[in-house]
Amino acid sequence: MTFADMMSVEEARRRILDVIQRLPAEVRNIEDAAGQVLAEDVFSPLTIPPLDNTAMDGYAVRAADTAGASAATPKTLRVIGEVAAGYIFPGEVGPGEAVRIMTGAPTPRGADAIVPFEETDEPPGRAFGAFAKGRDVVGVLKAADVAANIRRAGEDVKQGSLVLQAGTELHAAQIGVLASLGKRSVSVYRRPAVAVLSTGDELLDLDQPYEPGHIYDSNAYSVATLVSEAGGIPRRLGIARDTVEDLTAKVHAGLDADLMITSAGVSRGDYDVVKDVLLREGEVDFWTVRMRPGKPLAFGVFPAGERRVPHIGLPGNPVSSMVTFELFGRPAVFKMMGKTGWERPQVRVTVEERVVNPDPRRFYARAVVSERGGRYYASLTGPQGSGILTSMALANALVVCPEDRTHLEPGEEADALLLGPVMRG
Ligand code: AMP
Ligand code: MG
To answer: For ligand 1, what atom is nearest to the CA of residue 220?
Structure first.
């Protein structure tokens, strides 16, 4: 296959996302729904705030009574009572009167403005309740406008109004809004359960002692972490040996998942075992994507009774499996959760060193992007071999060298996908 015949990253992703479907909705308590997407329109059963109330600690007054007030010519009002948040003042503020009021307390009848303590002659530090009813007076030092410091009933939410639309991703503010409506639970699209299976005779699990000639299975852990960072629920299935029997058994063990992710066994050496199993157990599109790292990538579907479990076969090399999960697996998890916009933020960077692209594939170089003087710069995280996982651990971005470029020169611009926060300075 020539490079020109290989599938582009965009085409491969489009074909995966054509098969992947949004999952059904579930009802979750709001505190457990962070990162999920609303499957229902949420209308408010309440008006918020429910009543006009004060935004400041101070005195509820009739604004007209304060006209002309200044520090030199204070207006003296008779204090007829006190009210705290959570209570309703039983009386009414008449001409020449004021009610001492605390933030959040409903505005007493008759009052149309709040004068903050700072604009009265009340000495600071007086406790709530320490006033003598009917004998107390307060001097207002500044004229108040009508409605000053009053939060209007319904200024946040009106009863019956659409507050959050289906499709909204729930984060702290949205969950706070749901709580303000008194909602305990909401309908959200389910998070996918993602089976993560490693394959290879050379792999050791972490509880096995080190053996020469073997390597620890890192893909299961890096990929499972990427799954949960994308919002999915990873389930590590362990390591399948490079035999048809073992791989078949391990695949079957994962078919209750919503998505199956395997790693390795799709490059030349042991390609056949995996291919045998995938072809026998499911429908497979074997692909060669025009990218580096990650040229070998498999995608298919395992039928499992009534269900069809999509399968993404990541390449084995640790950097390749992470980069291909980033480009194909993460969008799949997003789509299952009903999220749109799986794209990472992309910025134009100036490359600070030569980036060599050995063949006409799109090269995703691991880089550190930093910002200086309003511009972004990228330097590589060292040697770029697809087995060098530390190059990924140091990176906060992937710099994209197009398939038709053999290299980028220092000072040239390129696109970078940001995987984490940009360095400053
Ligand atoms: P394969 O696709 O099976 O030929 O694997 C390609 C390379 O990735 C080999 O060097 C494997 O040892 C390595 N590899 C495969 N699976 C893993 C894994 N789970 N963790 C770390 N390295 C792996
Ligand atoms: Mg292998």
So the answer is: 19
Residue appearing with tokens 């998942």:
257
Query: 311 CA to middle of ligand 1, Å?
Result: 18
Q: Whose CA is nearest to atom 6 of ligand 1?
A: 316
Mean pLDDT estimate for the chain: 95
Protein residue with its CA nearest to atom 14 in ligand 1: 316
pLDDT of residue 285: 82
CA-CA-CA-CA torsion sign (231, 215, 321, 16): negative
Cite the beta strand spans of 124-279 per DSSP E: 137-140, 150-151, 162-164, 185-189, 193-199, 203-204, 215-216, 233-240, 259-263
For 222, the token pair is 């890096």
For a mutational test of ligand 1's pocket, the pick from 263, 295, 325, i.e. the residue with the most ligand atoms closer than 8 A to its C-beta, is: 263
With a threshold of 0.85, does the pTM exceed it? yes
The pLDDT tens digits for 183-216 are 999 999 999 999 999 999 999 999 999 999 999 9
pLDDT at 294 over 80: yes
H or E element in which residue 178 lies: helix 172-180
